[in-house]
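If I may wish for something, please sit down with the protein I am sending here and say whether tokens and residues agree:
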Amino acid sequence: MTEELQQWMSHCDNLITELLEDGTNDEVYHTIEHHFASANFELLEKAAITAFKLGLDVEEPEEAELENGARVFAFDIITEQMLDIDLIKAETKKMFELAKECNVDYDGWGTYFEE
């Protein structure tokens, strides 16, 4: 496992722990948003198409501005998952590998607090 992927695995542990400590409902599905980005729109668009062809729920790519003023293009892949650490880590690894295969950046995942 690469150091970068190991950091994402730690991110999974920390985020799920924080959500559970904050009292999110661990008995319901959570909407997981996996974030992808690239300064190159064509590369990002190809990644989105690849993900779509894999049957994933891909949000429309959009342009964003970073804190340093640089432009970047981004899209999310949406899944619905229980907050099961093994499932989330496996999904994160799959998304990380997809990003690497498509030469775009994987920018982690987030979710919402569920009552």
